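quick one, two chains, predict together pls
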Amino acid sequence: MQLEILKNRFLAIVSPSLPNEWEVEDVLAHLLGLSDGNVDSLFQQIAVIWPVSHSLCFAYLQEGAKCIVLMPGDLLGEWSRQILGCYEAGGLLAARNFMADPEKHFLGPLDGRCGARLTSLSERLQLYLCGVFGRRIELGVSKVPTTNIDRVFVPENIDIFTTEADNKLLYKLIVSLQWAHVESRVFEDSLELGHRGDGHVTRWLNTFSRPQEAKELFGVLQFVKSFWLLVDVFPGLIRRATPLCSDLIEAISAQGGSVSYCNMLKSVLQYSVTGLSKSGSNRRYLDDLLKVVLERLRSENTFKVFPEFYAYFDALGGTCNFGGLTLLLGRFDFDAAAVAIISRREDQKNAFIALLSMAVQQNMLVKDVANAENKSQQSDSSALVLTDAVAAEQEQPGHEEFLLQNSNAELSSELKALINSIQDDLGELPQAYVQAAAGMAGKGVNDRESHGAVAGFTQCSVSSVGHSYDEWDYRRGGYRSSWCTLYEKTVEAVTSTFVEDTLLKYQGQLHKIRRQFEMLRNQNRYARRRRDGDEIDFDALVDALGDSKAGIVPSDRLFLRLLRDRREISTYFLVDMSYSTEGWVGTALKESLVLIAEAMAIVGDAYAIYGFSGMRRSKSELFTVKKLDEVYGSVVKQRIAGIGPKEYTRMGPPIRHIAKKMLECESRVRLLIVLSDGKPEDYDDYKGKYAIEDTRKALLEARGAGIHVFCITIDKMAHAYLGHMFGRGQFVFVDSVDTLPTKLVKLYRSLTC
Amino acid sequence: MTIQGFKIDENKIDVEPFFLPRGNEIEIALAARANQLPLLLKGPTGCGKSRFMQYLAWRLRLPLITVSCHDDLSTGDLIGRFLVKGNEAVWQDGPLTLAVKAGGICYLDEVVEARKDTIVVIHPLTDDRRELPVEKLGKIFRAPPEFMLVVSYNPGYQSILKDLKPSTRQRFVSLTFDYPTEEREVEIVTGECGADAHLSRRLVQLAVMTRSLKDSGLIEGASTRLIIQTARLIKSGVAEVDACRAGMTQSLTDDLDLLAAMDEMIVSLF
């Protein structure tokens, strides 16, 4: 087809939006060699792409001219749809990358040959990780898999194998291996090298004759150790993944002339994965002595075995291209892990000291401990001793039951779990921790957390401009008197379709929510033994007859009456309105409020909604969205729509203020649900441990006053401090913000059913 | 021994039930019994509370009368009532009165499910009076030294409405039950259903992994009871993976993501 004809056809399609003619000619020149049919097929999609982006349309024609011979014309429609999807998600560059390799990105996946993407797997993989680690672990993205013990990083996509199933399995094996590295305590062992700090392992590896190879070989040896751990723990996974590992090992290639070095590495890896050398020729590289060295990994740590292992390879010299096996070998970020371990140990120490000192105070042992502490300054005797009841009495290795000596008081489950965790980590509970707790216990008891401590909230003064509240300073072990001032404001109502849009968006879920909450409301029950009612209560009748025969005046309460139980629950929702909620988080919070308001309208529970933010201690702000006795009408809906990000997150004052409000309401059951997007933080020194401890204190004060408190935290990472701040089992963590609205409703239901 | 035609001895447990203590719960329970103090057992579902009661009853050679509480349980259901037989009114003891008269153990399972006004009836039995007033008979039954009252509940359901009133709670000696350590749980599963230690260990591993999902939306992880149930299915010839799904994970949740994640755990372990 001639260029002029092509140009005229193109301009007719894109008219009246006309581009530069020279630009059009440049692009259409690529189509000159194509058949009429192929050109027609390509031109059919111009009308779809041109209105979205002119540049994209030109790129489509250029790449399409090359691709049209690879794919049937009827697939062009789907191809262009996916191009537009890539463009909308990642811009022109992403769309160009997609078009550049149609075999990999389009035709392969159509035939079931494709890689696996983390985005499609992350939710499942995340839960799997939590289950495997036994605690919350976050998934992150990194080209080479690694971990810092709190997060596991994996590639964004894996396309090493031809089928999606194999690539998904590889993902699972990668995260399991990262768990095995942590479980084998390689990171803790690294701290014993005596070079703590930046690059401590690198410095150790530099002591070997060829540091680069030493680093590579260390990775191989640790892989062997971790793989064997997986063989023991996850035989199902290993059974399915072994063929994949074996293929990846066979694909390792020698670089330069280091064939012997490469073959020996392959033999070691094949032996550890399959139990034997795959190819007969490689068997000679794996002598019995090397096997003995490897077997030592089952009982010793990698750092101890490594020098001998390295010696085998040092003589050969060389290096390898590990190819896809790099994903399994991963990268060891010892520095980041060291920081995380040291921080975890410090947190555990502080939490232990705080909890134990509180336990001592609660058990009225303050005096004894203080005496003991005085004595300890004169002698080596311990101020406070924890006895391991189980281990002592039954001579069993378990260490579940700890008692405060001279008292039968059992420690809280949180403290026991912490002690077990410290013992697992350090091998023993350092006596210094116990002494520190004893010291802190002598600093005085804060009785605001005890039941009925309403006085704690009434101490605040209400000035004409604001409410003044004390703030807990953990460093001094006491309150900063009248430290913060809180102002109450009302969220400005804005006219918007937000509520209607949200109801439309969650139309499907709303039907289910309404049905579930109707069931809550309809906790109808037959009240027995009523003076009047709909039916005869035969049990009561039999009783009355029996009583009558026995000469007792029979009761006249002989009827059943259908009663609707009154749910005397008042719920306050306290919503974080700090600047960090801007965007998706803020929208999800507002959507959650709309859904919960719908659910509450059905169940009929009294509820209030407040937001909080502020800046510095002199300006903590509480925003009224809905008061407890206010009707959920157009004004409240407009206020919900008007919720927007403000300033910082000083959580203590609003919690104290809301708790005070809640104590004034007459409900039998009071529930406070705090929705926040993470760590409390203000512009001044209200951050870090200080902010966490004050928030924790405010929550404990509320609980002490008989308020049920539950927290929902929305964050990308579950931080270790959450359990300490909110209390074990008193919070849920939401990492996928789109699930928040439905999760909040579900949570409210389970809390109050 | 027969009370009103009720053969109380039938509630005695003759064969030692399999129970592995995880701490000093037996010593504490025996001490409570010696001091005539009531017991409160709390812990997640399927962790061995009821089994502990069976063991305690066997150990003390006392009849065990169990009442599963529900929100329609009336005072009469616990204490007793007059029934008409022929032309006569005959008093029928309720389980609580029966246990008091016979000097047995009355075990109120899931006590928080019962209405609070019903539970108040146990108060005079739980302090130093140790008596049960029966208004209709115009009698007060004094509990013999052998009588023991035990209640249990699961604090893990998160519902703020299901809780014991402090005035009830503060009458009891409390024993907290939790899932045993992995080693101990393997022993329990092996001892309970005769599964080999290797299978028990794998099943316990799976249960422990599900318990880690509690902060991620799973209300409660797999209990020891579910592990034993699964082990029994496997012993009956059901394939391991299928048994884990049917016997354990499917009973935990309907959430598809959680089920898929637990499925990944199953196929990794088996």
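Chain A has six domains: 3-110, 208-329, 345-445, 456-487, 498-506+567-752, 525-564.
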